[in-house]
Structure formats: C-alpha cells, structure tokens
C-alpha cells in the first residue's frame, strides 16, 4: 500500500519551492511579480506537475531533471485559471477559498500576469532541456506539442467550445470533445512530457498517453459529480455552480450512478495500460489514478 | 537608391500569406480562428517580421528559412495589441481604422484569441527550427530569449510599467526603461532571431543588436512625435491620444525639436553599427532605418 497522500504532498511542496524560485525574477515590476506569485502559489492539488514527476520517475528519470517541466505545466495551468476567472469569462470572485487574481490586483494586472506566466512556461521548458543536457530535438518537440495542446487546437480551443456551449443542449460526444481539449490535453501533455524527459520508448509513450487520456476524462467526470454532491466547504467553491451557469455535465446527461460507473471503468482501463507495459515502474501512477476517484475535492 | 517601399510591401505580403496559412488550423472553433485571423491579418507595417527577414538575408540566410520566425514575432506582437486594446487596459475601440478585436468578437474571445496567438508563436519557432534543419540548440536558445523578451522581464513587464506610470511624472530614464521593455525588446528579438537563424557570428549578432536597440528607441520617439504632429486620418487613430491619457512622451519631456534631433542621431548610430561590420550585407537594414524616420504614420 503506497502512502499516496504523503507522496503527493511531498512532490507538490518540491514543485512549489521551485515555482517560487522561478518567479522571483529581477527586472520585473513588483506588482506583476506579486500577481503572478499570488496565483501560482495558491495551493491546489498540483495534479499536472505531479504527473510530470511521477511519469518521469516511473520511466527511470529523476525529480531534478523533470522539475522544470513540471513547473512549466503548472504555469500554463495557472495562467488558464487566472484568465478563466476574469469577469469577461467565468466571472469568479473566489478560487480555492481565496479571492481570484483580478479581485486582488485588478483586471489589467490579472490579464498580464496570465500572459507572463504563459510566456515564461515556454522559456522554462527550453531552459530545462538545455540545463539537463537532454536531446535538444526532444525539447523542440515538447515545445511544439505544448503549443498545440495548450493552444487553439487544445486548451484555449476547449475554453472557447465551453463558452459557446453555455445554455445549449450538448450531447455526450460534444461534451467529451470540450473536455478533451479544455482539461484533457494539458493532463496528457504532462504525462507525455514526463515520459519524453525520461527518454521513453514509443511503446512506453503510447502506454502513458492512454493512461493520461483515461484519467483526464475520469477526473473531469469526477469533478462534475463532486460539483453536485460535494460539500461546499470541502471544495472551496459554490457547489452546483455548473448547474447555476447552465453548463452541461456528465451526471446531467448520464445520471449520477452511470457517471460513477464510468469513472471506475476509465480508471481500471487507465491502470491496465500502465501494468501491461512491464518496463514502467508505475506504482505511483496507479496510486494517483486511484486517488483521483477517491478524492472528495 | 533602394526601393524600400516596394521591398517592405513585398515582404509584408509574404508574411501575411504565411500567417494566413498558419492560422488556417483544423480542429479550432470557427469563432476563435476568425478572431485570431481578424487581428493577425489587419495590415500594418509588419516592421518586426520584416526585420527578421531583412536581418536573416543580410547575413546570408534565405526568406523561406526565416519566414516562420518572422510570423512568430508578428503573432506575439498581435496578441499584445489585442490584449492592450481591452477595456481593462487601454480601452481602445479602433486600431488602424478598424474596430478592435473585442469590439467585434467580445472580450472573452479577444482574451482567448490573444492567448492562442501567443501560444502558437512558440510552436511556430520550434517547428521552424525542426523543418529548416537549424541547430536545435539554437532553437531552444531562441525560445528561451523570446520568453524573456516577450514576458515579465520584457514586453509584458513594459506594459505593466506603462500602466503604473499613467498620470505620474516620469523622467527620461524611466520613460526609456518603459519603452525598452514595452516595444524595444520585441524589435531587438526580431533582429537577433533573424541573425541567429542565419548562423551569425557573435560580432555580427552584437552589431545587429546595437542596430535594433537604436532603431527601437528611435521608432518610439518618432511615434510620440507623430502622435502630436500627425494628421488624424494618416494615423488611423486619434492624434494626441497620449496626451489625452496623460502619458509621458519624449516631446513632452524634451521638446519637439530635441526629440527630432535625437531620432536622427539614433538612426545615424544604428546605421553605423551595421556598416562597421563589412560582413553584413545590410543595404535593406539601412533603408529600413531611414524609412522609420521618414514615415508619417
């Protein structure tokens, strides 16, 4: 039995320490640095960076090599949250029980802090490759893939699809397409980046990609479930906010019980794609998959 | 005598053609693609991409190799304009005589179109290096430098400094610091990228960097001069808008005549740093420098 909570906390704290170093930049206006730091160090599960680290280690790399890539993914995730919370978008005042970035620093600074984090992320990846002496072609491929998965064809496109689907009847295929882009692509990127940093073979990469796609979808369905049944104080946001915003959810389309069954199936399949590849030392990845289903926040 | 207008128009049209191809992406929601295209293909001088191409060619590279890098810089520039025009920032309704992005597509889509263009730019650089068979380390260094010059330490930081300086008395050093970051860094990056794509030596890179820093500052001073003396219809924006927004300008600090003299000196010095390096075939760069001072828009 793996102590996954302790593992997650330890990895998250390493990521947070490195993130704090990375944004402690000279030559940056104080207000901008503070706004970037406020959201970057606002806690949270750190799921994406932990996935980078866990995948890299499962494939024989070490934390030190993988850490910059973990931080880059968290910067991209954080920028997307800052921009999503803006009045023009989801108009959220609170996230994880704290005021959102624009409520503290104003809209202009929130937009720019997001822009700066996104811009920084790509430099962090490039630097990570150069400093760890990884094959530079791998670095360019990682950046190219990140640009697609985080951009118009991936995460940003997913946010647009989500906005366009508000107040509309959305079927299951469409809902999956939205989430594949909006949240799935960055989770998949995290895992694939960890694998490539470790110099994984193409069959190893295929295995962890299938794993990531499975847990990414399961994570989203679980989020929708928690939004309905979760207790407000545990989530730190208003329960039922999807319903309030008239957003389509898996429980609304499939019912709560079928949604839960699907999560279980997805996690089982995701774990199987790891265990079917004996060269992957995947104990922590398997534990993370289980953790995602058992979590109550 | 070089026909610089024809040269600029030809290069701009090549850049625009390639940009149109690059944003013609499948798997992107139509509205997002349209919003990205609207601002990316809105015309303009295309100064930054032309500088990439002209520098690369001056150092022995060819347009085809340099074109992706030129397009990447224009994507970064365009995203910054879209975000700067937002109500929370400069709140501009028009740019180059057309409605700004958010006036056509709404604020949410404008924010996301900017995010998508910035994200795309880094992928375009990575792909440009991989496809042209340039040294991959060079590609990683270009991405790292771009991340700094376009980010919190460069362009985004400059925008923050500019916002913080509104309605305040700003001295000449401070004003230069704002512009060095806000507009200078991306112009310098354009020229340095062109040079590195051409495999320039370090003394060639030093020469074009000095050139870029000179014309970048001259360009900004000239902009301030034109804001005062330009005719409204030529600029396509309200003349005197800096004054209206209570922004510090070079003419306000130095007077119009001294500002004009300084532009002339900067351009002379910038040209000298090119001509002092005989290995640079810099006729077009010199002509671009002259053009920047003579322009009336």
TrEMBL record, chains A, B:
<dbReference type="GO" id="GO:0005737">
    <property type="term" value="C:cytoplasm"/>
</dbReference>
<comment type="similarity">
    <text>Belongs to the FPP/GGPP synthase family.</text>
</comment>
<dbReference type="GO" id="GO:0004337">
    <property type="term" value="F:(2E,6E)-farnesyl diphosphate synthase activity"/>
</dbReference>
<dbReference type="GO" id="GO:0016114">
    <property type="term" value="P:terpenoid biosynthetic process"/>
</dbReference>
<dbReference type="Pfam" id="PF00348">
    <property type="entry name" value="polyprenyl_synt"/>
</dbReference>
<protein>
    <recommendedName>
        <fullName>Farnesyl diphosphate synthase</fullName>
        <ecNumber>2.5.1.10</ecNumber>
    </recommendedName>
</protein>
<dbReference type="InterPro" id="IPR053378">
    <property type="entry name" value="Prenyl_diphosphate_synthase"/>
</dbReference>
<keyword id="KW-0414">Isoprene biosynthesis</keyword>
<dbReference type="InterPro" id="IPR008949">
    <property type="entry name" value="Isoprenoid_synthase_dom_sf"/>
</dbReference>
<keyword id="KW-0460">Magnesium</keyword>
<dbReference type="InterPro" id="IPR000092">
    <property type="entry name" value="Polyprenyl_synt"/>
</dbReference>
<keyword id="KW-0808">Transferase</keyword>
<dbReference type="GO" id="GO:0046872">
    <property type="term" value="F:metal ion binding"/>
</dbReference>
<keyword id="KW-0479">Metal-binding</keyword>
<dbReference type="InterPro" id="IPR033749">
    <property type="entry name" value="Polyprenyl_synt_CS"/>
</dbReference>
């Amino acid at each position: 039995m793996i102590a996954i909570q302790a593992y997650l906390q330890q990895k998250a704290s390493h990521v947070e320490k490195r993130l704090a170093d990375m944004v402690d930049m000279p030559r940056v206006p104080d207000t901008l640095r503070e706004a970037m730091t406020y959201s970057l160090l606002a806690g949270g599960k750190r799921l994406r960076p932990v996935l980078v680290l866990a995948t890299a280690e499962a494939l024989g790399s070490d934390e030190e090599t993988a850490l910059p890539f973990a931080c880059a993914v968290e910067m991209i995730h954080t920028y997307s949250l800052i921009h999503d919370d803006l009045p023009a978008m989801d108009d959220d005042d609170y996230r994880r029980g704290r005021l959102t970035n624009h409520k503290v620093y104003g809209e202009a600074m929130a937009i720019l802090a997001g822009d700066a984090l996104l811009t920084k992320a790509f430099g962090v990846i490039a630097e990570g490759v150069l400093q760890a002496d990884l094959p530079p072609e791998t670095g360019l491929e990682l950046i190219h893939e990140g640009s697609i998965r985080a951009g118009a064809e991936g995460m940003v496109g997913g946010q647009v699809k989500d906005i366009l689907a508000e107040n509309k009847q959305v079927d299951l295929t469409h809902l999956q397409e939205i989430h594949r882009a909006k949240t799935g692509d960055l989770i998949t990127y995290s895992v694939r980046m960890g694998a490539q940093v470790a110099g994984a073979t193409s069959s190893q990469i295929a295995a962890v990609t299938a794993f990531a796609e499975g847990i990414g979808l399961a994570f989203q369905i679980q989020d929708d479930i928690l939004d309905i049944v979760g207790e407000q104080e545990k989530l730190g946001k208003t329960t039922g906010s999807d319903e309030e915003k008239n957003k389509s959810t898996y429980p609304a389309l499939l019912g709560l019980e079928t949604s839960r069954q699907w999560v279980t199936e997805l996690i089982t399949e995701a774990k199987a794609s790891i265990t079917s590849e004996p060269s992957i030392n995947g104990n922590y990845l398997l534990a993370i998959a289980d953790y995602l289903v058992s979590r109550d926040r």
